[in-house]
Request: fold
Amino acid sequence: MNPDEDEDTAVHALENENAGCTHFFSAYGLSPNQYKWLAQNRKKAFPSVCPAPNPSMVDFVVIFTHDVAFYNVTMPTAVHVDGNGFSDWTPMSTVDNSLMTQSEANSSHHEYVWVFHTTRGAFDPAKFSARRKPLFSKGETNMLGSHGGYKTVMDALTYIEEAPTAR
Reply:
């Protein structure tokens, strides 16, 4: 078995995964239900809006909160940087367990989302300002967790999908 062929196959699979993507996002504060909805339904419902494969591809930063009507306390924590760059960056992050449990996030009564634009290639999670103004924000009442918060995910992705190409 040729290890170079395995690497080529992985690169080809990633290219296929991002084929058709015109807008890339990084999402923070997702409830487990929101994360699950994105993993299962995003590609079918929003094929041109994709999780960024790396920080240099981020066009939009999306922050979700649960029962908290402001985003600055749930801002992304600085990404740990080592000699190789972003060592633990991920395009989709769930709620910070030190602020609320995942089950609390799934059963919250109010879901909020904020969408920010960033120039592709300029996104640095460690320098994302709490004073930054969102381009889009929306709140939803989540009656006893019936929607699992996916309505705010759909609202955010609809906004991103309708935005002009963000390059």
